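Objective 1b: paired records.
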Amino acid sequence: MKFTTKVQLLSLELGLLLPVTATAQPMQATPVVLRVSLFDDAGVGATTLREAAREASRIFLPANIDVIWLQLPQDSLAQTAFGRCSEASFPAHLHLRILLRSHGANKSVVGMSFLSAEGKGCYADLFYEPVLEMQRENHIGAAIILGHAMAHELGHLLLGSNSHSRYGLMRAQWNRDDLAQAARANLLFSPEESTRMRSRFTRDDPRTETAQME
């Protein structure tokens, strides 16, 4: 399968940004469930990872999408023992892998999602060193930044090709104003993006488990 999409999240130049607020209201339909297998190859640590996952889950709530996080061990043999948890299927079970740095991309790149020519994909990578750099320069917790980056990359997988926006969570490049919005829990998906993501799921999906970190 040919992968065609590379996503850059980080830009620290100053710029004018219209405020983004939580205008999307939770939908009344039964929530859909998104399972995410999470691989910590960067050694982020359990506490930061749990806080980041909680932040990403909060961002998906207005879209009425519950996220179940499946943290898999790094060892390949141990991953095999997890069976179906190590598999991926679009759109209900996606994979996020956190690496220390990207090899080949610009050092400011925080994440990459991988989409087919049809605009579908199950896999995305995040890079932790740029997250730590953003933390140092902007005095915002690493878990907050990482959680928003996780939601951004999952958003790309669910929204498909050409899913960057001018404002909000899905901007191609984040500046200091965006990060300030993230710290105030106001960097979100738009209502239209929320609707598009939900449309990826089948209406008869019976899974309605409570979101959790497993």
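Objective 1b, second protein:
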Amino acid sequence: MRLRASIVALVIAASAVALSSRPSASVRPGITPVPCPQQDWQYGDASFEALAGAKAFFGRYDGGLYRIEIPERWNGELVLYAHGFVTNGGANGSNLRVGNHPIREHLVDQGFAWAASSYRCNGYVPGQGLVDTMALVDLFTKANGGHAPQRTYLTGTSMGGHVTILGLHQFPTAFAGGLAMCPAGPELFDFYAGVGAAAEVITGVQFKANELQGDLAKMSDLLGKPPDYTNKGRELANVEIGISGGPRPFAAEGLVSGGRFSGNISGGAIAGVDTTESRRRHDTNHVRRRSESTRAPQDRRHDLSQQSSAVRRSGAV
């Protein structure tokens, strides 16, 4: 089966970010976020209990729901937390919710205040997430009796890591530092789509828009599960490792953890289920994969020699 000419993958807000010559009241200078999905957003409960020796502030603002926690022995610094991707599809896709900073206890113990937002919408919206996260500084200042932070830091996980990188790039003087934890980005979604396309080629199963789960189940039967791969599964595992950085320590183990081997296979993008402007299109006609049968015997012998324990530790499957 030949690789499909067009693979649709998720666009990220950074590629749509543009310098703005006319900043509005709701958008800080420097970015024009991709618009939120048009949905009837429902607001959850933002309330939470403060840790001992701290005060909790929470509620609703233009950026959705917020939480702020300020230690009684505040050191004058604020850490903003940008959460990761929350789907806007499914039964709970319109529900907005806000959580606590993952290292909340450590921050409060060290005297740092922190703040987090639900954002005003769900979906892959790092640009809007950045706008709504930065707006927390004004909320914090009001909650803190008019005392603004001396330094502000930006942190985030997954899509929130993308928010962090975007913020540090677009507003280099707004933050004293940043920590992007497992940041997402265009390469991640290209990787998912690429693995899905490779899975189609290797298994011979083609994703269909109305049968995605069934098609993935068929693929799984043909691929096996790590570490008990079939030959086809071993081939796909090596593709996943190869296009994500090549053989390296713990690459093979990473495919076992959390079901990542099959979790990396994206069928919806390939099947054309996602057609919104937050997707991007690729032509992969120029990509060619060399089959094992066309490789020189010495190359295949070299591959067999890679099964030593030392090479396995380097990431070969």
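The chain has two domains: 33-184, 187-314. The longest helix spans residues 186-203.
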